[in-house]
Amino acid sequence: MASTTCEFSSRCAVFAGRSVRADAAMRYREHYCMGDCSACARWALAIAIGIDEVPDELLPHQHDRADAYLIQAV
Ligand code: SF4
């Protein structure tokens, strides 16, 4: 199966490694950004409110936190 890169990668703080350590960013890229984007809490929130509104500190596995941001945003 061909892998694809997340549509938000060019504007994502985690993908860019701005908000996490380099080793963590590499693991996130492999697992989420170039793996299963739809499993990423940042991706799900970006779909709902736009990647520019996703907090840099939100991590891909933090679905509960993403839900809380979404409730605040609507
Ligand atoms: S961290 Fe999530 S939103 Fe950001 S590029 Fe990776 S899959 Fe996309």
Can you describe what's shown?
It is a single chain. The chain is mainly alpha-helical. The protein has one domain (9-73). It is 49% helix and 0% strand. The chain has four helices and no strands. The chain has helices spanning 13-16, 22-33, 41-49, 63-73. The radius of gyration is 11 Å and the shape is globular. The termini are far apart. Bound molecules: iron/sulfur cluster.
Q: Order of SSEs, N→C?
A: HHHH
The percent range for strand residues is under 5%
Helicity level = 40-55%
Number of domains: 1
Largest sheet: none
Give the terminus-to-terminus CA distance.
37 Å
- Over the alpha carbons, how many angstroms does the gyration radius reach? 11 Å
> If helices are DSSP runs of H or I spanning 4 or more residues, what is the number of helices?
4
Bound molecules: iron/sulfur cluster
How many β-strand stretches?
A: 0
Mean pLDDT: 94
Shape: globular
Low-confidence stretches: none
Helix/strand-derived category reads mainly alpha
